[in-house]
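Section 5.1 Outputs to date
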Amino acid sequence: MIPAPRIQIPAELGARLQQLFGLDGTPRTLEELSDLVRRHWLKSLRNPGLNAHLRATYYGRELFGNVNYETLHRVKLADGRQVHTACALDAIIEGFFLPLEIESTCFHCDQHVLIRISKGTVIHAEPSSVVVWLGTSKGDSCACETDACPYINFFASQEHVTDWQDKSPDELGMTLTLQQSLNLARNGWWEPIHLSVANTQFAADETAN
């Protein structure tokens, strides 16, 4: 079987993602980005404070990427909780922890976007053509909350991205399908957090015994 072609990341975007996400290398493909993000989280989770926060996220006591201000992306949970997440990708990542419904809008035309995720799988997407723009700011500033999160958004379709780019040719980023976004969320964030929690629980069980 011929392997699927690797998804290339523009060089300037890769450099900015390295800078903003604190990665140990510059990702040239989406697969490399997933791997570098995964390594970053596995290393970061050695920090007890961060580990405790993500354990709370893993067990649903806290929600991934939620912020105390309004954004385009609102997450609704089955228990009635509703929060805004900093970016579209954060909302998708939370879908690996708990079943949820994401309400957002197309960044180009404000068309309503509705996505339901359960166990890291999209079970409904409206419109079905929705995609994610993985973008960043340009320049040297290096704060994810201001230089990455506002630039990671949903679009109704690739055609809407193209129309938006025609009017905003200096924007830095690339389009991801929902499945590519899920793969990035799974490999880069969910799996290392799951592994860390499992290992921590194993260590605690061993100590108790």
